[in-house]
Amino acid sequence: MKKLNQFYIDGEFVTPHGTETLDLINPVTGKKMADVTLGDEVDVQRAVDAANRALKIFSQTTKEERIAYLLKMHEVLKGRKKDLMDIMMYEYGCPLYFTDLLIQGAIDDFKNMADLLKDYDFEPRVHNSIVRLQPVGVVGVIIPWNSSNGFIATKVSAAIAAGCTVVIKASELSAQQTKVMMECFHEAGFPKGVINFVNGTGAVVGAEMTRNPGINKITFTGSTNVGKIIAKGAVDTMKRVTLELGGKAPNIILDDADFATAIPQAVLACYINSGQACVAATRLLVPKHRLEEVDQIIKDFEKDLKVGDPTAQDTVVGPMVSHTQWERVQEYIRIGIEDDKATLLIGGLGKPEGLENGNFVRPTIFTNVNNKMRIAQEEIFGPVLSVIGYKDDEDAIAIANDTPYGLGAYITGKDKDRIYRIATQIDSGRVCINGEFHDDLAPFGGFKQSGYGREFGSYGLDAYLEAKAIINKDLY
Question: Is residue 337 one of the residues assigned to a domain?
Answer without folding.
Answer: yes
